Amino acid sequence: MDKSVNTKGGVRVRMAPSPTGTLHVGTARTALFNYLFARHHKGTYVMRIEDTDRERSDKKLEENITEGLKWLGLEWDEFYRQSERMGVYEQYLRKLLEEDKAFYCWHTKDELQVEREKQMKSKEAPRHICSYRDEDIRDEKEKIKRSIIRFKNNTRGDIEFTDLVRGKVKFDAQNLGDFSIARSINDPLYNFAVVVDDNEMQITHVMRGEDHISNTPRQILILEALNWERPQYAHIPLLLGSDKSKLSKRHGATSVSEYKDMGYLPAAMFNFLALLGWHPKDDEKEIMNKEQIIEEFMISDVQQSGAIFDIEKLNWMNANYIRSLKLKEFRQLCMPYLENANLIDKKTDNDWLEKILGMEQERIKKLSDIVDAVKFIFEDINYNSELLIWRKSDKKDAAEQLRELNAIIEKIDEKNWNKDELEKIIMPHAQEKGDRGRVLWPLRVAVSGKKASPGPFEIMEVLKKKKVLSRIDNAIKKLQ
RNA sequence: GGUCCCAUCGUCUAGUCCGGCCUAGGACGCCAGGUUUUCAUCCUGGUAACACGGGUUCGAAUCCCGUUGGGACCGCCA
């Protein structure tokens, strides 16, 4: 199996999304592999919007795709839109027609459907070998209007190509039939537009999802009819859902924009997606930045089987990236979520906010988690009084500890109100009791209202004296 | 149904091309322990896989054949 990559003369790759849906994470991963390959080989990365289907293409979706790709950091070197290149396709379509390598077919959709079903029933390969393939209707305007253009497939035997991730792959050309290449002379179909563009844009390596593998022989036939050179192909395995079928809506979020909104960081997504189907030579380090990944990426190391999109690992990775954020960056990233939840507004003090966020930075997995995590600081808390009781103690003791704390805290000057000072005063007191939990647990629950939270002193600092005292009062009341 | 692709822990994978270093390594998850008032972090340890059957060979996760299983595609979508 020859999987050697020919990069002589510089590589040119393309990503070719179709604006008929939002940017799917699977598409993003394929785009990422193209990007990695281009950057690794210091080649050119072309972005081409495949919007030949005018009815289904949508500018809004195109924007969702380009925004998503940019967000991930996959910046391109050249940009094209197929809808703006219709003249180019027409030129080559005419050429094929003139050379009798393509023809008009006026079978109706219904006729084709019936034919297909019949073939499937009789265990044949579904294909259309057109009975009109040798008719010349050049001058019959009406008939042309009802026709589509098909490729006249006279090839016998196998079409073989070497796939960079799979090795040799071959298809029987006969099974392809006279496949369609255009709706009309100025309305090309996918397979045709791709071949023309890949040639015009001098694409050296076609790297796309495995679901395109069966299009490859058709594209090879077209390109050979036009006497063009073949690019090298690499079919990337699909991204799968937990049931091992192609990742789709029913498995959960599939759009890059959804993950962005949930608060996954682009660097984490980049890293995670790169590791799905590819692995660096060095086993140990999986947290890698863009430069390291580009440096180590080899298309020949790409896995041949599909990879399941495992949200658990993404969460772990994202938490990792969140933790490594500078506090200020973290604050800026969190603010939209907090504003949205009406927890903060333009007047909220940034230093104070950073203290709050700093408590939770290493506890959350994605930015949107921050809202629930810090809500207790901003809003009144509500909890069951049972929660106040330390596991080795009882209700009476909890109330007693809180009363003692109240007296101590009352005396602390607001000027010295910070977590270090608070700890310096309260810790020795807790230590005296022999079991720090007896004091610290009820205190922490009283100020947080939660079973699990940051430490009491940090919380007290941001809550300020007045609120702390009132929360402790409340807790004591709850215990009566 | 036809064609093509794939097959190592639950998941992502290393090892496969060039058979022995593999009593199969790493990461996520999970479990246990340590640190901590709790949670998270951090540290230590553990759990768990070569789909099956034949062959080739002194020796197979690795090569060959078959079986089984899974997936993708089969449009006047891309």
Q: Any idea what the shape is? A: elongated
What is the share of helical residues?
Answer: 40-55%
Distance between the termini: 79 Å
Q: How would you sum up the major sheet?
A: 4 strands, antiparallel
Overall pLDDT: 94
Q: What are the low-pLDDT stretches, counting only 5+ consecutive residues below 50?
A: none
Which strands sit side by side, in order, in the main sheet?
4-5-8-9
Helix count?
18
Oligomeric state: single chain
> What percent strand?
5-15%
Considering the chains and any ligands shown, give keywords for the structure.
13 strands, 3-stranded parallel β-sheet, RNA-binding, alpha/beta, 480 residues, 4-stranded antiparallel β-sheet, 18 helices, single chain
Describe the structure.
The protein is built from 18 helices and 13 strands. The chain has helices at residues 25-40, 59-72, 86-98, 109-121, 141-145, 190-200, 216-225, 256-262, 266-274, 290-296, 311-323, 327-340, 350-360, 369-378, 395-410, 419-432, 436-448, 456-478; strands at residues 12-15, 44-49, 78-81, 102-105, 148-151, 158-163, 167-172, 180-184, 187-188, 205-209, 232-236, 239-240, 307-308. 37% of the residues are buried. The strands form five sheets. It has a four-stranded antiparallel beta sheet with strand order 4-5-8-9. A three-stranded parallel beta sheet has the order 1-2-3. Strands 6-7 form a two-stranded antiparallel sheet. Helix 6 (190-200) crosses helix 7. The mean pLDDT is 94. It is α/β, with parallel strands linked by helices and 480 residues long. It binds one RNA strand of 78 nucleotides through helix 4, strand 7, strand 8, helix 6 and strand 13.
